[in-house]
Amino acid sequence: MTTLYYRPTHRVALSAVPQLTSWDSAGSPGQVKLGEFLDYAQAAAAPILAAIDGPLAVELNVGLRDELPLTSGGRDLDNYLFPLAKRLGPARIAAIFGGKVHGPSFLAVGHAQPEHVVSSPQFSTRIAGSYVRPEWKATLRERLLQIQHAVLAVGAIGITIGITTGPGRNWANIWKPLIDAFGPVLGENLERPLTEHYRRAYPEALGIPSR
Question: Could you tell me the pTM of the whole model?
Answer without folding.
Answer: 0.80
